[in-house]
């Protein structure tokens, strides 16, 4: 049936009423959008961010290594030719003891062949997340020994987020090389064991880890991180024992060879 205005009442009656926007509907859409943003941020922090930050840390460490090599070559005179035979086997020397670095002062890099040839993470003084662990990589516990020094060279790093330098610490095998590179040369430690402790068990930082009132005669390395992943409930602790120091003039040590 037509009307005077030319419209059809039956057609008009079948038209669906306009949907009204409700406060609840808007709030629901906002919550969904916020949830998506949070998920994207978590994905960034737990995966993509680690990849990017990790690559940046390794690139920084590689640049430091190359810089130290160039500085050594520029300052060291050309070797004088002699008839003396080259020493057989790896060249080792008495390890020089470095001064303790200041907070966030970069003094070394860490290389672990088990983690790949591109693993070259800078190390700095202090274990503050904001100044060292988040921005540089691996931090040295103030007051503990320095590389090659008798006692406990104790360090910390993230296991997740900000490049996660110690993400694979649980994959280390007994005897794996842990190499600390400085301007002076390379300090090689050998991995020995893992331990899980509560955050309050600071005995892992003693001169002889977990041994109260025992004088240190051996250089150790202690690496600490959070456990389990994405949690602060415990600490995973990796221990190693000093093996040798290779001076810069001798070239990279055999301990840096790739793990097969």
From TrEMBL:
SUPFAM superfamilies noted in UniProt: Sortase (SSF63817)
Pfam families for this protein: Sortase
Keywords annotated in UniProt: Hydrolase, Membrane, Transmembrane, Transmembrane helix
Gene3D superfamilies linked: Sortase
Transmembrane regions: 21-44
Region (Disordered): 68-99
Protein name as catalogued: Class E sortase
CDD domains registered for this protein in UniProt: Sortase_E
Protein's UniProt keywords contain Transmembrane helix: yes
């Amino acid at each position: 049936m037509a009307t005077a205005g030319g419209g059809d009442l039956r057609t008009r009656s079948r038209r669906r009423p306009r949907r009204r926007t409700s406060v609840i509907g808007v709030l629901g859409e906002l919550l969904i959008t916020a949830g998506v943003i949070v998920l994207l941020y978590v994905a960034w922090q737990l995966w993509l961010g680690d990849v990017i930050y990790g690559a940046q840390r390794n690139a920084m460490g590689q640049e430091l290594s190359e810089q130290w090599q160039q500085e050594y070559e520029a300052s060291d005179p050309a070797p004088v030719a002699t008839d003396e035979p080259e020493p057989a086997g790896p060249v080792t020397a008495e390890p020089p003891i470095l001064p303790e670095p200041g907070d966030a002062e970069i003094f070394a890099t860490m290389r672990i062949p088990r983690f790949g040839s591109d693993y070259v993470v800078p190390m700095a003084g202090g274990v503050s997340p904001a100044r060292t662990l988040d921005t540089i990589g691996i931090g040295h516990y103030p007051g503990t020994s320095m590389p090659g020094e008798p006692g406990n060279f104790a360090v910390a790093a993230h296991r997740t987020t900000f490049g996660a330098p110690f993400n694979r610490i649980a994959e280390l095998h007994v005897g794996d090389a842990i190499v600390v590179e400085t301007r002076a040369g390379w300090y090689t430690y050998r991995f020995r064991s893992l331990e899980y402790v509560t955050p309050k068990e600071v005995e892992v930082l003693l001169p002889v880890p977990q041994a109260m009132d025992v004088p240190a005669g051996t250089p150790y390395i202690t690496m600490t991180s959070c456990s389990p992943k994405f949690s602060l409930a415990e600490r995973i602790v990796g221990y190693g024992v000093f093996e040798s120091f290779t001076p810069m003039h001798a070239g990279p040590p055999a301990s840096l060879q790739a793990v097969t």
